Amino acid sequence: MTHQIEKDPVLVDALKTVSDFIQQVTGAAPTSAEMADALTRYFVLNEIKEHIVMLRDGEGDG
Fold first, then answer.
1. Distance between CA 54 and CA 60 in Å, rounded?
2. In angstroms, rounded to a whole number, what is the distance separating the alpha carbons of residues 13 and 7?
3. I want to staple 29 with a disulfide (CB 3.0 to 4.6 A). Which of 12, 16, 23, 24 is the partner?
4. What is the CA radius of gyration of the chain?
């Protein structure tokens, strides 16, 4: 099932940052499938959730 979503420039920039980092440290850019797999792993989802909760509570530097 494919959903058309609006491409938020902030999210596009964040994904580019992740891709650039992976290319820098491994020597090869990740595929879209690799990025999707990594971003949907429980540990990563939990880290993202914790960071968002922290930001909403006014902690951290964003």
1. 7
2. 10
3. 23
4. 14
- Tokens at residue 30, please? 């990740």
Cβ-proximal residues to 45 (8 Å cutoff; 6+ apart), any chain: 39
pTM comes to: 0.76
**Comparing C-alpha atoms, which of 44, 28, 24, 46 is closest to residue 36?**
44
Name residue 17's amino acid: T
pLDDT tens over the chain, length 62 residues: 567 678 899 999 999 999 999 999 999 999 999 999 999 999 999 999 999 999 999 987 65
CA dist., res. 27 & res. 33, Å (int):
17
